[in-house]
Design goal:
The protein is mainly alpha-helical. It is built from ten helices and no strands. It has one domain.
């Protein structure tokens, strides 16, 4: 048992180091992205390398935080990969990028559901999200081209549901950090919509990029609450003589289901 505890402790140290390095790399990429317009010979349109580097950073952060060790983590990672695809596709085709992000939000919702959902909290969150969504629709929809109305409507609904479901997550160890990430993601997309359909001023990037990448990193780092070995009792119960690495933390999700 002591052997497995040492392995889990060393694994947590390694995971925290990976998360730190990946997060710092993503943050540095965002800074370079925002200053790219001022670099000699590098225009704003050529700053995509920094954007994808930052996006790869939040995916790496999720993996370092133990995304592969639980179904909740795997769906969170799938959602972040959807965001990565949206960042890759968006500059070529905005609508294709939109659908990639929508796929990511569905994956996030599935990940939240695996933690357990208090549907009363979700219902309570739906009212403010509905009011906010209607206000944004009244401001935005008249400016959206007819061919984009359907995907924009789907996306607005999907991200609103994602935030509402995040508010209903049962485990307190991750509820607030995930809700914060989801809310900041939502706000960042308001600036994306303004940039795309209302005012093309690049000043929108100064708001949407920092908030978007902060939101994705926050969602990735929330996985540390379910890192292998976090719950010593569960790790000890799951330990077997043949294991030589960190233990999956699927069992921690079951404990919340039993407490409901």
């Amino acid at each position: 048992m002591r052997y497995h505890n040492v392995l889990n402790r060393n694994c947590r140290i390694f995971m925290n180091l990976v998360c730190l390095l990946a997060s710092l790399s993503a943050a540095a990429s965002v800074v370079l992205l925002l200053t790219a317009r001022g670099l000699p010979g590098l225009g704003w349109g050529n700053a995509r390398f920094f954007a994808m580097s930052a996006s790869t950073g939040f995916v790496a952060t999720a993996i370092g935080a133990g995304a592969l060790w639980s179904w909740h983590g795997r769906f969170m990672l799938l959602g972040l990969i959807g965001c990565w695809l949206g960042d890759y596709l968006g500059p070529h085709d905005f609508v294709h990028g939109l659908y990639a992000f929508l796929f990511g939000h569905f994956a996030f919702i599935a990940a939240y559901a695996l933690l357990g959902i208090d549907w009363r909290r979700v219902a309570a969150a739906c009212l403010p999200m509905l009011v906010l969504g209607c206000g944004i629709a009244l401001w935005l929809i008249p400016r959206v081209p007819r061919e984009d109305l359907l995907p924009v409507g789907f996306y607005m609904t999907g991200i609103s549901v994602m935030v509402a479901v995040a508010a209903g997550i049962r485990p307190p160890s991750s509820r607030w950090i995930i809700l914060a990430g989801a809310a900041v993601f939502y706000i960042s997309d308001i600036f994306v919509a303004r940039w795309k359909y209302v005012n093309p001023d690049p000043i929108n990037a100064m708001f949407c990029y920092p908030m978007y990448y902060s939101a994705c990193l926050t969602l990735a780092l929330s996985l540390l609450a379910y890192a292998p070995g976090k719950d010593k009792d569960i790790a000890s119960a799951e330990a077997t003589p043949g294991r030589q690495a960190c233990l999956p933390n699927d069992a921690s999700e079951k404990t919340w289901a039993e407490k409901r």
